[in-house]
Amino acid sequence: MSITAFTARRARTLRLAAVGLTAVAALTLTACNSNEGTGTKSEAPAEHSDQRLDAAGGAKKGGGTEQAGSSEDGAKGSGGSEQEIGPCDINKLTVGVKSVQRPVNYMVLEVNNHAGVDCNMPGYPVLKFGEDAQAATPVYEDSKPQAVVTLAPGETAYAGIRTSSADGSGQNGYKATSLEVFLEGSDDSKSVELPGGSVYIDNSAKVTYWQSDLSNALD
């Protein structure tokens, strides 16, 4: 073989080898690009899925918080509402009066609550001794208690009544044969039987505020 022929054959061999290497490199690059694209697509759904799960979890947590808050608010509302105690109704009280030995010329007015609920005794009793009484019996201002007397069912309140002066210094005295009792702020009344059927009343007569203790009514 001549040198020229050998050289031409070697050149063709090198060209074929170069073409083969180029083809292999192209195939390798294509495969790499294909794998990278697949990886990106597979990761994206997983990320979106996690986001959806987080969103759902957040919504559930939020809903639970709102429900718990509503229940708590409802409990506070139920606990905060307290029933107000109203004034006593004389028609639901047992009313009576009795004499005492000390102090002299005193009586005690007693009322007992049979309403079935708590009630407040307003101020002091308004008393009308006799049909011809011109005015209600004045009150001892110094006898006012620190708090309004509240009666539970079955409890009793007291008011002391001075009917006349012990030394006879009172004026405009008369014999009363009846007693009508009102509660302050109400037009309803009850007639009460007097001890012995009558009592002497003069212009020194006074009545105390309602008391929860009998001894306070007689001070």
What does this structure look like?
The protein has 219 residues and is of the alpha+beta class. Helices cover 37% and strands 23% of the residues. It is built from 2 helices and 11 strands; from the N terminus they run αβββββββββββα. The longest helix has 78 residues, at 3-80. The model is unreliable at 1-8 and 16-80 (pLDDT under 50).
Topology summary:
Blueprint: H1 3-80, E1 93-99, E2 106-113, E3 119-121, E4 125-129, E5 149-151, E6 156-162, E7 174-176, E8 179-183, E9 189-192, E10 199-201, E11 206-207, H2 214-217
Antiparallel strand pairs: 1-2, 2-6, 3-5, 4-8, 6-11, 7-10, 8-9
Main sheet specs:
4 strands, antiparallel
Silhouette = globular
> How many DSSP-defined strands?
11
The whole-number mean of residue pLDDT values reads 76
- With helices defined by DSSP (H or I, 4 residues minimum), what is the helix count? 2
Taking the alpha carbons of the first and last residues, their distance comes to 154 Å
Q: Would you tell me the structural class of the helices and strands?
A: alpha+beta
**Could you give the order of strands across the largest sheet?**
1-2-6-11
Radius of gyration based on Cα positions: 52 Å
* Strand/helix succession: HEEEEEEEEEEEH
List keywords for this structure.
4-stranded antiparallel beta sheet, alpha+beta, single chain, disordered N terminus, 3-stranded antiparallel beta sheet, 23% strand, 37% helix, globular, 219 residues
Q: Brief overview, please?
A:
The chain is of the alpha+beta class and 219 residues long.
